[in-house]
Write a structure and sequence with these properties.
Blueprint lengths: L9 E2 L6 E12 L2 E12 L3 E5 L6 H7 L9 E8 L2 E2 L7 H7 E4 L10 H11 L5 H14 L3 H4 L12 H13 L5 E5 L7 H14 L4 E5 L3 H7 L2 E6 L2 E7 H6 L4 H7 L5
Helix pairs in contact: 3-4, 3-6, 4-6, 6-7
Bound molecules: adenosine-5'-triphosphate (ATP).
The site of adenosine-5'-triphosphate has 13 residues, from strand 3 and helix 1.
Length: 264
């Protein structure tokens, strides 16, 4: 593999309001230093893509942002959300995850009906009003562009949906919580091209209301759907800029090599 100077990076200052910021974020799995000194701001109501070769730390970085790595890794540094450091041990992680939702690579609906997939977690947060539950059910399924396909069959098992529908149900389950930020870890990598383009269309609509951060291996997907892109290499954020700049005028050699396919 080519060697690059990892002490150099190009990290842009974003003009938008910030949804989340990381400050000197370091992640260790035992002795393995997986993320080095990550300092970046994620914009509100935009899609930010995290790209880079396998093992560079994309999922690790993403999972820190709503404290999903707490039990497996040591995470030092700050993650600022609404002026609060949500990486502090004093913070209630369940509350963090209501504000910052996550959708995983493989669709993981509960083995329950479509309706219960949305309503069960909402009830667990203390919402009792049936009117509110029903309203959030419809709103979230509409938001995830699934309502028209399932509205007549809400009591059907979620496991009977196609993979692409299951993934949109998982997106609906996340947005039913009314989060501010939606984290997606390769949400379309297990899906066929038609389901993938539905997910991409859905994300374009959702970014009006949510700040979205997505890990993707698919460079075309990153360039199609994201506004900003961060390129990671060996745990370092090498470049962070508007997606157009990262793909057409990269500042760093490693980024240039990666986006033009000359990497490795
Ligand atoms: N749960 C874990 N326990 C120990 N080490 C881990 C764990 N998860 C990831 N790592 C290590 O952290 C580093 C970054 O992995 P990560 O999965 O974040 O990369 P990635 O860029 O998302 O890779 P991929 O594109 O293959 O999913 C790798 O060295 C990996 O082996």
């Amino acid at each position: 593999m080519k060697e690059y100077n990892l002490n150099e990076s190009y990290i842009t200052d974003i003009p938008e309001k910030k949804a989340l910021s990381t400050k000197n974020l370091q992640v260790y799995y035992g002795d393995n230093h997986a993320i080095f000194d990550a300092n970046m701001d994620f914009p509100r109501y935009k899609i930010t893509a995290l790209i880079g070769a396998s093992g560079c730390g994309k999922s690790t970085f993403l999972r820190c942002l709503n404290r999903m790595n707490d039990k497996v890794a040591r995470v030092d540094g700050n993650i600022m959300y609404r002026n609060v450091d949500i990486n502090s041990p004093k913070i209630n992680v369940y509350e963090v995850r209501q504000h910052i939702g996550m959708v995983f690579q493989r669709p993981n609906p509960f083995a329950k009906s479509i309706r219960e997939n949305i309503i069960f977690p909402l009830r667990n947060t203390g919402i009792k009003s049936n009117d509110e539950l029903e309203e959030r059910l419809e709103q979230s399924l509409r938001g995830a562009a699934l309502w028209d396909e399932v509205k007549d069959d809400l009591n059907k098992s979620a496991l009977a949906l196609s993979g692409g529908q299951q993934q949109r149900l998982c997106i609906a389950r996340s947005i039913a919580m009314h989060p501010d930020v939606l984290l997606l870890d390769e949400p379309a990598s297990a899906l066929d091209p038609i389901s993938t383009s539905k997910i991409e269309e859905t994300l374009q609509i959702l970014k009006k209301d949510y700040s979205i951060i997505i890990v993707t291996h698919n460079l075309q997907q990153a360039s199609r759907i994201s506004d900003y892109t961060a390129f990671l290499h060996l745990g370092h954020i090498v470049e962070y800029n508007s997606t157009a700049n990262v793909f057409t005028k990269p500042k760093m050699q490693a980024t240039d090599d990666y986006v033009s396919g000359n990497f490795g």
